Amino acid sequence: MKYDFDYFCSQLDEFENKLSLGKTIMKNDIYCIKIGNGETPVLLTAAYHGLEYLTAYALIGFLKKYMTLKEYHDKISLYAVPMVNPDGIDIAINGINPKKLMHRILVKNLGIIDYTKLWQSNAFGVDINHNFDAEWNSLGKEPSYTKYGGEYPCSEIETNIIVKLMEKIKPELFLAFHSQGKEIYYDFNGMENKSAEAAAERIAEKCGYTVAKPTGTAAFGGAKDFFIKKYHKKAFTVELGEGKNPLSDFQLYDMTRDTETICLAAIDEI
Ligand SMILES: [Zn+2]
């Protein structure tokens, strides 16, 4: 089983209301699915990092179940971007394709040959979840497979697409799924919603996750950080699964179940 972009697109067939928010530099669409037409907008996102592709499928698994939970649909307008970084996931799964110009540039600039089991960034070598305008720091001088924040905040297509979607729908709740660690993060520099910590504790308790405060490089420049800074509403980063990325697809069943529990518990906390 290859969890690459072609497989991802095949998983979207059953969703009626989906659209592309734009194309990446490698011409992959960043898709958004909408379910329900309620007054309260909610935004769910996943797969910011190349090695974390299973989070896209855990979120899609939840969306398939959520389609049947009609009682939510007239209260909530649910928007989901299950794969924020298709270019990075392509590199992490399929490696470098010498026929692709961007890939040849990466090889030339970074001198890395085998990118599989290593790649977290987008095809420019920018780490999307360090590129948001929230205490941004470039974290290094040049593109890399991980943790390079870019030339300036919001320099990347993927980052802009999420920021614009936030501006358009103004979510009451924002979730970003990553792997791994079975942890939930809720804070950003003391700017978080005052009820966010208690809500995170209640959500975590339902699935045996731990509430944690990220430190070091994980503590800024992320999508959740930007959302908290700009909108002061509840936002959570969820680290699904456990072990070392890329996680074994044996974990996907549990990751999907935890995504369901966490999304529904978080919606109930709005
Ligand atoms: Zn991540």
Protein architecture, described:
The chain has helices at residues 5-10, 54-68, 86-94, 101-110, 157-169, 196-207, 223-231, 252-268, and strands at residues 18-23, 29-35, 40-46, 76-81, 173-179, 183-185, 210-212, 234-240. An eight-stranded mixed β-sheet has the order 1-2-4-3-5-8-6-7, sandwiched between helices. With 270 residues, it is an alpha/beta fold. The longest helix has 17 residues, at 252-268. The model has no long low-confidence stretch (mean pLDDT 94). It has one domain (5-268): 3-Layer(aba) Sandwich (Aminopeptidase), CATH 3.40.630. The chain is built from eight helices and eight strands; from the N terminus they run αβββαβαααββαβαβα. Zinc ion binds at residues 48-49, 52, 129, 178.
Low-confidence stretches: none
Identify the bound ligands.
zinc ion
Structural class determined from secondary elements: alpha/beta
Q: Judging from the principal axes of the Cα atoms, what is the shape? A: globular
Our measurement of the CA-to-CA distance between the termini, rounded to an integer number of angstroms, reads 37 Å
CATH second-level architecture = 3-Layer(aba) Sandwich
Radius of gyration: 17 Å
Q: What's the number of domains? A: 1
Record the strand order, biggest sheet.
1-2-4-3-5-8-6-7
Helix content: 25-40%
- Number of helical regions: 8
**H/E topology pattern:** HEEEHEHHHEEHEHEH
Major β-sheet profile: 8 strands, mixed
Strand content: 15-25%
Number of strands: 8
Mean pLDDT: 94
CATH topology: the name is Aminopeptidase
CATH class: Alpha Beta
Q: What's the name of the CATH homologous superfamily?
A: Zn peptidases
